[in-house]
Specification:
The complex is a heterodimer. Chain A is an alpha/beta fold. Chain A is built from four helices and five strands. A five-stranded mixed β-sheet of chain A has the order 1-3-2-4-5. The two termini of chain A are 19 Å apart. By secondary structure, chain B is an alpha/beta fold. Chain B is built from seven helices and 17 strands. In chain B, the strands form four sheets. In chain B, strands 1, 2, 3, 4, 5, 6 and 17 form a seven-stranded mixed β-sheet that branches. In chain B, strands 7-14-8-9-10 form a five-stranded parallel β-sheet, with helices on one face. In chain B, strand 12 and strand 13 form a beta hairpin. The chains are: A alpha/beta, B alpha/beta. The A-B interface holds A 24, 26-30, 32, 35-36, 39, 54-55, 58, 61, 65-69, 71, 85-90, 92 and B 84, 86-89, 93, 95, 125-128, 130, 132, 134-136, 138-139, 141, 198-199, 214, 229-230, 248.
Chain lengths: 101, 289
């Protein structure tokens, strides 16, 4: 998955559908979610996948009012269209993505 | 590389034990999490006359019979508290603080003792309400946070969070000495409601109200929906079919946590079904490889 930061976020999500995972190194559920998203990113080519480390990129976390991690935001042409807060099983995230493509 | 169990059973009441017996008979590599007293609900029962074959026993006797049974089959109970169970795809990761257990299938037999959520708790989840203070604390830098603590361990988390926040309130839900840093303000009373518009704004207590941006609820026992993210619930219970299957493949549930009536022999029967369902799930899983 692509690392996204404060300065690249806007451009990264501006076109098409992009899933962005907000995470941090100290967060247990984030650690479990990341291999699940890695797998999905290999299986699904219709959308882009990226991740933002909230510790290093507080501006993005603030802008999208991330109040809990992990949080997944789904962007469509720059706008947030859906979100998931907390760990979710792979099948559920797959469904969540399919709803928007 | 750690050992991956065939079945992890969470709970040591009649449902969990009955599941364990059947897992043992089917020769599965399993682990049971719970406590040595098995179930406080069983030991507290004054008289039990509806358990077939054991007429007129009291709760303590029933517990002893259960204990003798599992001991004679060499089943041991691991006294560790599972904080979360993650469905990883073809296996489950069971978290005990920093330790992780792995199992191909799980049986939830957790009973139904968890405390009711506070009004507004579910509504503001992820919008100011959280259950993992250490995960989310850095997002509340320079903000006001309230920790509602149901046990001593919550104090440690409160101390950690207070290093980052502007102000920290601690609302203890138990009596005792509180081992908290000096700058933490201890609140009195009971929580009534969490309110706000888009995000949390206030916590209403029986003794008044506080302005707060975040509320962390740190409980003793957690609801199945929180324990296993993604599990489907129905009217406060885990949704299962006749084979005790939940919506997650390889995850089964039995006993009070799946619904009424809350009875010992019903729980034991469901534990039996769950265990056999887990066994056939494992057979299919291994034939796929």
């Amino acid at each position: 998955m692509r690392e996204i930061n404060d300065s690249s976020l806007i451009t990264e999500v501006s076109n098409g559908v992009t899933l962005v995972d907000f995470w941090a190194t100290w967060c247990g559920p984030c650690k479990m979610l990341s291999p699940v998203l890695d797998e999905l990113s290999k299986e699904i080519s219709d959308i882009k996948f990226g991740k933002v480390n909230v510790d290093e990129n507080p501006q993005s976390a603030e802008q999208y009012r991330i109040a809990s991690i992990p949080t997944i935001l789904l962007f469509k042409n720059g706008e947030v269209v859906d979100k998931i807060v907390g760990f979710r099983p792979k099948a559920e995230i797959e469904q969540f993505i399919k709803k928007h493509v | 590389m750690g050992n991956r169990y065939d079945i992890a059973i969470i709970g040591s009441g009649p449902a969990g034990l009955s599941a364990a017996l059947n897992a043992s008979i089917r020769n599965k590599n399993f682990i049971v999490f719970g406590n040595k007293d098995l179930s406080t609900k069983v030991t507290r029962a004054p008289k039990v006359n509806n358990y077939l074959g054991l007429y007129g026993v009291d709760g303590k006797e029933l517990k002893e019979r259960f204990k003798t049974h599992i001991d004679s089959m060499g089943i041991e109970i691991v006294e560790e508290r599972i904080n979360a169970v993650y469905a990883m795809g073809d296996y489950y990761a069971l978290m005990v603080n920093e330790k992780i257990y792995e199992a191909s299938s799980i049986i939830l037999a957790t009973g139904i003792e968890y405390t009711k959520p506070i009004k507004g708790e579910a509504e503001f989840l992820g919008r100011g309400v959280g259950y993992c203070a250490t995960c989310d604390a850095p997002l509340y830098k320079d903000k006001i946070v309230t920790v509602i603590g149901y046990n001593k361990e919550a104090e440690e988390e409160a101390n950690f969070v207070s290093e980052l926040t502007e102000k920290l309130y601690y609302l203890p839900m138990y009596q005792g000495e509180y081992d908290l840093k000096d700058d933490i303000e201890i609140l009195k009373g009971r929580p009534l409601e969490i309110i706000g518009s888009d995000f949390v704004e206030k916590l209403i207590l029986t003794t008044g109200e506080v302005v707060t941006h975040g509320v962390f609820v740190l409980k003793d026992s957690i609801s199945p929906g929180q324990l296993v993210p993604g599990i489907e619930m129905e009217e406060g219970h885990i949704k299962v079919d006749r084979l005790m299957r939940t919506n997650l493949p390889g995850c089964f549930a039995a006993g009070d946590c799946v619904g009424k009536p809350y009875q010992y022999i019903k729980s034991a029967g469901e534990g039996n079904i769950a265990s056999l369902s887990a066994a056939s799930y494992l057979d299919k899983l291994s034939s796929k490889k």
